[in-house]
Amino acid sequence: MTTPLASYLLVSALLFSIGLAGALTRRNAILVLVGIELMLNAANLNFIAFWRYGPNPEALTGIMFAIFAIGVAAAEAAVGLALIISIYRHYKTTNLDQIDSMRG
Amino acid sequence: MLLDVRPLTNTMPSNVTIERLDQLKDVPGEVTLPFFILSVLTILGAAAALTLRNLVHCVLALMLAFVGLAGLYLHLDAQFIGFAQILVYIGAVAILIVFAILLTRGGESPSQSIVSPSWAISSVVSVIVFGVLAWTIRSSATTRHSIPPQPEVTVKQIGDALMSRFALPLEVIGLLLTAALVGAVTIAMQDKQEMK
Prior knowledge:
The complex is a heterodimer.
Chain A: H1 5-25, H2 29-53, H3 61-91
Helix pairs in contact in A: 1-2, 2-3
Chain B: H1 8-11, H2 15-24, H3 33-49, H4 55-75, H5 79-103, H6 119-139, H7 155-163, H8 167-188, H9 192-195
Helix pairs in contact in B: 3-4, 4-5
């Protein structure tokens, strides 16, 4: 009795869609970043699931890809939050619809 | 048809791989209880993180989702990734987000609406994305394998691979993290003119 690969992929797809909905609908910039983090995590879950169910798990490719993705996501979070803090200092708000000075 | 989606077995070059894939094919599998609990935890945590009003509560729900994801990695026999997930995401990223929330005075609940004016279109887009993904997963033949026997993966093997085959990517990610660290400090640093 084992879990099929499709259920992991479905959980990952649902997580990705929740993250996408959050990133597109929330007004607060920090929550948009949280949505992007969730989408990255959904991709990581896919990497690990395909690695575990793939024909050559000894090659460690999926694990390596997930490690590097976690590293890149950490760098992205640090720079993104620094940008949000800098924007807050300038505009005194983190609501994205009030930061529209570059609107055409 | 524009996209020629062939089954995975036809594109595999080596004969050994094809035999191993054939052994794995079409074994019926069921959703086990640990997987169900962990995935419900993850999905509920993620949904709560993006629907709650108070931002601090959002980060707590996000931590719950990360714990569920780490459990899913452990359930997939990727112990190193599971513990790295706990260390990096719950230990570092979530704390960083809490700091950002408190520094931007997001701790109090907002008085006006929490969603952007175009939320309806965005929700429709997300639902469509999920529908397409779910339909693709359901109709794909390669996703119905049962799980292969547990691979023997030790941290020593991961370290050996990082030092030999993946040495260049490791150096690049080190450079990226250094650049991101310096960049984050430079961006977030207060200007001397603004302080006056």
